[in-house]
Design goal:
This protein has about 350 residues and is of the alpha/beta class. The protein folds into 2 domains: about 150 residues, 3-Layer(aba) Sandwich (Rossmann fold), CATH 3.40.50; about 180 residues, 3-Layer(aba) Sandwich (Rossmann fold), CATH 3.40.50.2000. Helix content is about 35%, strand content about 15%. The chain starts with a strand and ends with a helix.
């Protein structure tokens, strides 16, 4: 059976959606999975044995033509972007699950309502969708598994020898040895939700507290965090190991693999940490805590936030900026006892 998955972005969502791969293979033995995503996101899927073919959305016309000769047994579209829905509509498949265009209007299949009723495509409108999302108590992998009628799986990522060597060289350069308690702190939170991260001062104080516990801290971030991370390092009494902010996606993942614990917002770093089976302490601000599945390896720190799904916090300080750092430190200690 040929299966098509259309999931373009965001990159963290692509990673977390890999949780359906093992369940699909279990339900459809011998299935051949093609995954369509954005060109820049294809790398995160490389090497995953469950996927036979990765296609960039820019080259998706070949998928349409191929499907007209041999229709997919199942197509799965989990996006709300126009190009994704257009592809889902044009491709030939015996069963279509998820979003598509119907009479030039965005729609989704009945069996995918549990997810898309809470999305930007919701038939009920944004206010009702946000209300449903706030009330939801099921994780994203659980929702997908139930809708697709498969066993719930975990996200996956495959690191090649090149990335493993990159991480090994980084560890040697910074004196990281096997058995060290290494805490990764990722300051990125994406551009959409400004209330999903700690302040610079909190982050610096957290790094100093980690050092006082005899652990090593690695500071992570992307290009957008370059200046911010430099300011955080200047505020630290004990300087962290600086991972830099210009690592490739796969280099970023390989450095996360060095950590015993990762502290981050609901972001790409979180989904990579989960896929790498790391203990993740997740700082959740105005978005859904229920959707996140840590698979028993981590903790969700979700202060009572009355700015749910609002881009701007209504308070002078966001809920995470008001968070007592002792809450995070306790979870770090819990990671040690769990290990």
């Amino acid at each position: 059976m040929n299966i098509l998955i259309i999931k373009l972005g965001a990159i963290g969502d692509v990673v977390r959606t890999t949780c359906i791969l093992s369940g699909l293979h279990e339900k459809y033995p011998g299935c051949r999975i093609t995954w369509v995503t954005k060109q820049g996101h294809a790398g995160v899927l490389s090497g995953i044995s469950f996927i036979e073919r990765i296609v960039a959305i820019d080259e998706a016309q070949s998928i349409i033509q191929m499907s007209r000769q041999e229709p997919f047994g199942l197509s799965i579209c989990l996006d709300d972007e126009d190009e994704a829905l257009s592809l889902a509509s044009e491709v030939s498949a015996k069963r279509k699950f998820g979003s598509f265009l119907h009479n030039c209007r965005k729609s989704y299949s009945e069996d995918a309502q549990a997810w898309f009723d809470m999305s930007l495509l919701s038939r009920f409108g944004k206010d009702k969708a946000d209300s449903l999302k706030k009330a939801n108590q099921k994780t994203y992998p659980q929702l997908l598994a139930e809708m697709l009628q498969i066993q719930k799986g975990e996200p996956v990522i495959a690191l090649f020898r090149k990335e493993q060597s990159f991480a090994g060289a980084f560890a040697k350069r910074h004196g990281i040895r096997s058995g060290d308690g290494v805490i990764g702190i990722n300051t990125g939170s994406g551009g959409r939700w400004k209330g999903k991260r700690l302040s610079r001062e909190q982050t610096a104080n957290l790094i100093d507290a980690i050092a006082a516990k005899g652990k090593k801290a690695i500071l992570f971030g992307g290009p957008e965090e370059k200046e911010r991370n430099a300011e955080i390092i200047d505020l630290c009494a004990k300087k962290p190991i600086n991972a830099g902010t210009n690592n490739s996606l796969r280099e970023f993942a390989s450095l996360i693999s060095l950590c015993t614990c990762v502290i981050c917002s609901d972001s790409l770093a979180l989904h990579l940490a989960i896929a790498l089976k790391k203990y993740a302490i997740t700082l959740i601000g105005p978005t859904s805590a229920a959707e996140i599945d840590l698979y028993g390896r981590g903790a969700k720190i979700s202060p009572n936030c009355d700015c749910f799904y609002k881009k701007e916090c209504i308070h002078p300080k966001s809920c995470l900026e008001r968070l007592e750092l002792s809450t995070i430190i306790r979870e770090i200690e819990h990671e040690k006892s769990s290990a």
